[in-house]
Amino acid sequence: MFDDDRAHRTTIRLERQAELFAQRHEQGRQVVHGAIGEPSGTYARALARFGEQGVMDLVGVNGFYSLISMALNVGRTPLPAGVAPALKPMPR
């Protein structure tokens, strides 16, 4: 019973992560599409606010953050001793 329940919770968690990934991918696609095709509203607003260099900096920072966060999550890297989590843990 325990293994089935654990597998079910893992499946739900992975489905949530996949949904979030799909949303983020779509947002990123809209920005990139604006950069290489017809400007999307998202890209145009970002360009007006941050300029072309600022948009590229945001893309780089977001990519770096995604890479580091995935590596830390896969490795289940704990917080340093004495540091409280900034957010409540997701229900499992």
Question: Any overview of this molecule?
Answer:
- There is one protein chain.
- The chain has 92 residues and is mainly α.
- 1% of the residues are buried.
- It has a domain at 2-65.
- The radius of gyration is 18 Å and the shape is extended.
- 75% of the residues lie in helices and 0% in strands.
- The protein starts with a helix and ends in an 18-residue tail after the last helix.
- The mean pLDDT is 81.
- Helix 1 runs antiparallel to helix 2 (41-74).
Helix percentage range: over 70%
Class derived from helix and strand content: mainly alpha
Q: Any idea what the radius of gyration is?
A: 18 Å
Low-confidence stretches: none
Order of helices and strands: HH
How many H/I helices? 2
Gross morphology = extended
Largest sheet: none
Distance between the termini: 16 Å
Summarize model confidence as the mean pLDDT: 81
Strand content: under 5%
The counted number of beta strands is 0
Quick tags:
single chain; 92 residues; mainly alpha; 2 helices; 75% helix
Summarize the structure.
This protein is mainly alpha-helical. It contains two helices and no strands. Helix 1 packs antiparallel against helix 2 (41-74).
